[in-house]
Amino acid sequence: MAPSQLRFILALSALLLGLGLFAPVMTLYPGFGSYTGIVKPLAPYLTEPRTFSLFGSIITLLREGSLFIGGLLLVFTVLFPIAKLGVYWTAVDHLAQGRGPGKIYERLSHLGKFSMLDILVVALLVIAIKGLPGGTIITLEWAAPAFCASILLTLYFSSILKTRPQTKE
Amino acid sequence: MSTLGKIKELKALRDSGDLTDEEFAQAKTRLLNEPPAATSLGWVYPLLIVVIVGLVFWVKPQKKPTTKPLNNDEGKSTQTNPTVKPQHTYYIFPDLIELAATNPEGKEWDIDDSGPDITYAIHLNDREIFTAPSKGKDNTVNEWGGMSQDLSLFNTSVSVEGIIKAALVSINAGDTLKFKVWDNDIAANDEAGEFTIMTTELKLGQTEWWCYGDTWNEDRDASRPDASRGLKRLRLRVIDSEKKAEFIASQLNLPLEKVNDMLKKLAP
Fold first, then answer.
1. In chain B, what is the straight-line distance between the N-terminal and C-terminal CA atoms, in Å?
2. Mutate to test the interface with B, among A90, A108, A118, A151 (most CBs of B within 10 A)
3. Structural domain contains residue A169
4. So where are chain B's domains?
């Protein structure tokens, strides 16, 4: 695959990542079990559906003092995927110049196992959706598949970069 | 390796006799004339793309979610609301009625300057089939949820028997529905006005009707003045009787499965 095509995959992955982080990822329809009928007229704002983005939720977590989980999510769903894309782009530039992908790329390959954490975040999200009490419903919005697609595209890119012979453009 | 390092390596090769002076000079010249490897700034692009997408979503106002994921065909009034099917039954009720500041004669609704206590009745071919389950209180606008529930706070059970408070109407060609609206007073009721529609012209979901003199318009006509006397606006809700469970679930914010279970238990 030519470097220009590799760069296109990375740009597409970055776009999907941006959408996955900032577009609506889920809508919450609060439920209060048997008390829903009572809560609705007394405090309608509590039963109003709300939409969240992944980035917005992380910022809310950090603002509300959940520094550990907020920080963990910030690192592994925002910073690490962006850094990974940045390093891959640099690696493509190096390959286009007939050089090796670079030391950072090799180091990142060792950190590859941590990239599974962003998949874990999506898995946790699904578990949370299935296990909510009181009839609360969460529906996934289009940012969730965009985020997953970005991660899968990055994995695909990583696999083709590993098997690619070094060529000069 | 830096250029200086490479020159040192070449010098070592010359000193050891592996390179002649001429070869050393050529290699050195080539090395010095070789353009430096371009510094890659490619890592910035993914970051830029993500930041730009973030800015777009930050600037663009987000659309509010709909009130409920269930009950899709009974949302807000639109021009594309499907019409009712003949020989099919529907629950019908006005979920909002608004009156003008004065009654049809142009006088105050009540002598003590308080607002009207709005109530209504639904007539099918001039035969009363349903009356409002509750009335408004001193206000020119009132809403009805189309439901009431018997709540036992002691055992927190909810009974859904007769929970829908609406007229059950079968759609037949030529039938007319009339909504009579009045201000409910202790002494004498004040007629506010009436709205008539053919049952075959009803639309599923919500449709909002505005009164302009003797005519009614679906949705507000901003080019005409709103009614200044009597009945001003009526929002009609039509629910497919086969989707009773979805309606109850949406109004009470309960999971559909739970409502279905409750209805099954109550079925004779």
1. 88
2. A90
3. no
4. 1-61, 80-266
Give the number of domains in chain A: 1
ipTM for the whole complex: 0.80
CATH classification code of B80-266: 2.60.40.150
* Within-domain flag for A108: yes
pTM, to two decimals: 0.47
Residue-wise pLDDT for B77-122, tens only, equals 434 567 888 889 999 999 899 999 888 888 888 877 788 899 999 9
Query: CA–CA distance from A59 to each of A72, A76, B53 (Å)?
Result: 12, 14, 17
Query: Is A34 in CB contact (< 8 Å) with chain B?
Result: yes
Are B43 and A15 a contacting pair at CB < 8 A? no
Token pair of A39, please? 């809560």
| Minimum distance, in Å, between the CA of residue B38 and any CA atom of chain A | 8
Residue A106, domain member (yes or no):
yes
What residue type is assigned to position B120 of the chain? Y
Domain that residue A52 falls in: 3-163
Q: What is the DSSP letter of B194?
A: E
Please list, in sequence order, all residues whose beta carbon lies within 8 angstroms of the beta carbon of residue B10, skipping any fewer than 6 positions away: B19, B24, B27, B28, B31
Say if A36 falls within a structural domain.
yes
Convert B247-262 to b/e letters by CB count within 10 Å (16 or more is b). Answer: bbbbbbbbbbebbeeb
